[in-house]
Amino acid sequence: MRAAVLQVLGDPRSYKVVRYIIDGSVYEDRFSAFAIGRWLRENGRSVRTIFLAPESLVTRIEDGIQMLRDRDEFERRMVEILGEAEVIVIPSVGVYFGKYTVQFKGSIENTIVYIFKELLKLNVDEIYADVSTGQNIYTASMIEALRKFATYSKLRSILQGGKGISLKLTYIPPVDGEVKVEIYDLDVKAFFSLPKFNLRFLRGRKFFDELSRIMKTLRMAFNAIKYNVPLVFYHPNILNLDIDVERIVNNLLEIVEEIEERVVMDNLTVIRNVLRCDDIVNTFFAISILYSIVEFWREKISGRSPDLDEILRTFKEIYKNLGLDVNSRFLERDFEYIREKSKDFEGEILLLELLGCKESRDRKRNFFAHSGFLSEITKVKKREKITLEYDFESMRRRGIDVCKWLLNP
Predict the structure, then answer these.
(1) Contact in structure between 157 and 32 (CB atoms under 8 Å)
(2) Domains recognised in the chain with CATH numbers
(3) pTM (2 decimals)?
(4) pLDDT, tens digit, for every residue of 122-146?
(5) Residue 99 CB: number of other CB atoms within 10 A?
């Protein structure tokens, strides 16, 4: 199992050697992250030890002005001081005094977004985060970023019933030479609900138009699940889910890094564009739901025939995972009705003709009321099995646009 240990760094030269007691074992080190990492390795994990170093630490070290302008050099200097570890330099906020006086203009939202962005790049199964060190504002930012990352992780496999990444918070009481490390779970609730996202931070970029189109596809797919319209997943000309979600995530990460880019002024003032945390994080939440939907489509639907048993088996599983059991009952009801009406039929026929009913007065209402099987546009094929598909010629003649209905149920 792959694990990461996070610790917000204070002045790295102020830490003293402490005896850390973890699960009955003793580890001596200056930094709790190293002690926790050793304990995890002894228990079979591969471990990445990562320190979050606020930019304000440049006021505590020699040549800080140079490193203020060169983040890579600052990271290298921190690694030299710490030893074998990874360092992520995170945005600071406020005025700091030391060997130099530096002002950081921005927002704590920048810090949260930056940590969240870096967490997205980790490829681990569990994270241990020490919340006992570092300045409070940065420790609080780390916890908030971890909560958002936990939500993102759960949404990424929400259709599959996944639990997401395992997160642990470690607490260390005030140090007096020997201290017991306390470890607690950090859990969040994730619901199948489309977050309110705003792409205004992408305006003026080429990616804006592409992502806007993809978000429309997401909204259609989300509503098709929520409002029980399974057949659209078998028609790529209605719902095309052949999407490279990883590419979207990587493109978005690159843009966020560009937007976050700072400017260092000659008077030792660091200026950043203030980021809207909710806009950015909610966009990633939406993309994580899209990832789960696309994986569901690839694993369960792509290339398969939409016969009644296949559709019911596939969608009952995800409805159960999402707590939408009522959708399963309506789907079973509609399928039983179609089976009953087609028991003495073999061939291919429009559902309207099979049922011998009149056309709907309110087509949109009946579309959603009957699991998307609107009789005027649904074709029934019965041979060895009963399969369903949409009749696009019937849609065209009647001026029916299923995509518009899914975008605005």
Answers:
(1) no
(2) 2-185 (3.40.50.10640), 305-409 (no CATH)
(3) 0.94
(4) 999 999 999 998 889 999 999 999 9
(5) 13
